[in-house]
Write a sequence for this structure.
């Protein structure tokens, strides 16, 4: 049976590349979406079997527009993959760097290439829907003064050329994607747990939660605070730590953590991705 997989953006986005790599060798049907809410709605309802969502970038940090949605959906993270982000400067065939006056791309891609724009102050950065759609727009304009930041796959797909390769600031620039589903799957080899929780707005409440992990020798991999809508200057937390839900020590730790929270939900238990290098 063909697996239905959703991702944000058009052909050539890094999200599409993440899907291709994660499901390589499997029979799957990719479906692209304009926004993450539609993806999560279809995933939550079972219209999609899985979806790949970007959650973190090594240069710009947490991708809030996806992470902030997790608390509203009954989805589970069942895997992850890291994708190196190589931003090429792409334009129509024959265009040269000295021709370029405007560069289009997703705001995060522009931020990831800040040193390029600092070195070329006469080039104007213009925010656009996503990296691949920017490449498509440059093709539609057929104007040698316009370029886009995007993947080499997008350049190839739309028949354009990369004037410069890998103009991102960091040589280790990469994005982490979570594979999510409405099914509560746990890989027997899972070694990472993602947790959402909120604590009382009082001294020591976060310390008490983190102390449970320390006392049980469970390694915290990541901690991110996000504003709670409607509660002024109060925050919830997203936490990743090493472990498997089938481990007694982990189950006991979660029981203790829940006692110290006003809200707590395991978002997923999965096998940590191998970190690819550029």
């Amino acid at each position: 049976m063909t697996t239905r997989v959703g991702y944000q953006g058009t052909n050539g986005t890094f999200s599409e590349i993440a899907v291709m790599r994660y499901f390589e060798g499997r029979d799957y049907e990719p479906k692209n979406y304009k926004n993450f809410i539609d993806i999560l709605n279809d995933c939550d309802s079972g219209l999609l079997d899985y979806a790949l969502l970007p959650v973190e970038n090594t240069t710009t940090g947490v991708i809030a527009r996806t992470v902030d949605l997790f608390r509203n959906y009954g989805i589970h993270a069942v895997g992850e993959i890291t994708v190196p982000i190589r931003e090429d400067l792409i334009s129509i065939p024959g265009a040269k760097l000295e021709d370029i006056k405007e560069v289009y791309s997703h705001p995060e891609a522009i931020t990831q290439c800040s040193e390029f724009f600092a070195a070329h102050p006469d080039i104007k950065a213009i925010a656009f829907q996503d990296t691949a759609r920017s490449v498509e727009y440059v093709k539609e304009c057929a104007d040698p003064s316009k370029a886009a930041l995007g993947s080499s796959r997008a350049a190839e797909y739309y028949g354009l050329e990369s004037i410069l390769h890998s103009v991102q600031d960091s040589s280790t620039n990469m994005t982490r994607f979570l594979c999510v589903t409405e099914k509560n799957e746990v890989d027997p080899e899972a070694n990472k747990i993602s947790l959402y929780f909120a604590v009382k707005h009082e001294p020591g409440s976060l310390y008490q939660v983190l102390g449970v992990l320390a006392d049980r020798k469970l390694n915290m991999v990541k901690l991110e605070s996000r504003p709670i809508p409607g509660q002024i200057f109060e925050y919830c937390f997203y936490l990743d730590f090493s472990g498997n839900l089938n481990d007694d020590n982990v189950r006991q730790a979660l029981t203790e953590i829940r006692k110290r929270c006003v809200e707590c939900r395991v978002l997923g238990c999965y096998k940590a991705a191998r970190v690819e290098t550029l």
